[in-house]
Amino acid sequence: MEIIFLGTSSGTPTKRRNVSGAAIRKANAKAWYLVDCGEGTQHRLLETNLTLKNLQAICITHIHGDHCYGLPGLLASMAMQGRTEPVSLIGPKQVHDFIEGVIKSTELWLNFEIRFLDVEEQLSEGLQGVDLNIDAVRLSHRVPSFAYVFTEQASARKLDVDKLKSAGIPSGPIWGKIQSESRVLLQDGREIESDDFLLPPDRARRIIIAGDNDTPELLVPVITDVDVLVHEATYTQDQLERIGPGPQHSSAKRVAEFAESHQLPNLVLTHFSPRYDAGSTSGQSLSDIENEANAVYSGHLFLANDLECYNLKKNGVLSKKE
Predict the structure, then answer these.
(1) Structural domains for the chain
(2) pTM score, two decimals?
(3) What is the pLDDT of residues 108-140, one digit of tens each?
(4) How far is the C-alpha of 310 from the C-alpha of 322, rounded, in Å?
(5) In what order do the strands lie in the sheet with 318-320?
(6) Identified catalytic residue from 36, 66, 135, 306
(7) 36 catalytic, yes or no?
């Protein structure tokens, strides 16, 4: 599975960072999914091999502009490129109202259907994509905000070739039947249980991409067997305490402590305040975010940058693609 970051700044863009957006897909697959669509997202997409034709679903975590102001332009570009297939749009009801207002006021004509799914209603049902399943959990922010959980769909179990050969079952069409049918009658008259000749299924990998949230503990109901958590770390803890609880964001320390307490193997921090960006006059830098998280978290820690791609291997190891 791959995560491609299209924007990693909070509130406003910087010279190095766009506002929020991330793409997720099975490695090298054509089908992909978008989480948040801040202004300028489609410009970032032009620097990837992702195409709007193959976009399966757009998941908006919340209605704040740095997470959705790029959505009207993205939809317009999809139409101008000739897309006709429906696209799922998942998010709070305010997102639907926002898009409907833009469509009406700007006379935006779309030659494809937007299938809007209210995330509040989808919480108990989830969404089955082409190759990933999507679930959601509510977070804590100034407006309704959500995290999306992406779980890969089960793939066909592989044949235990050594066992087939030991049992004297020659290769050929019969092997295909063993993969697709529960019981198979062999040419020599033996009836076998297919399950006896299949390797154990691969464990389904799971990735959480969270929206703005000041209470990481709200992720507990969906944290089981999660391989990667992508979570905002807008501030360091001392900066968060100076600002106060009003913005309802998380600090690097708060998120890292949560990840450590639940033994999450991979943590990717994003949505950084522009005060930490290179060239800022605040006297603070991303190393402050990194050092604070590393002080309490023993897993694999990453600080996301725009256009970085991360690959989650089948063994659960997350690495940055060069």
Answers:
(1) 2-155+202-316 (3.60.15.10), 161-197 (no CATH)
(2) 0.90
(3) 999 999 999 999 887 667 888 889 999 999 999
(4) 9
(5) 114-118, 87-91, 55-59, 32-37, 21-25, 2-7, 309-312, 318-320
(6) 66
(7) no
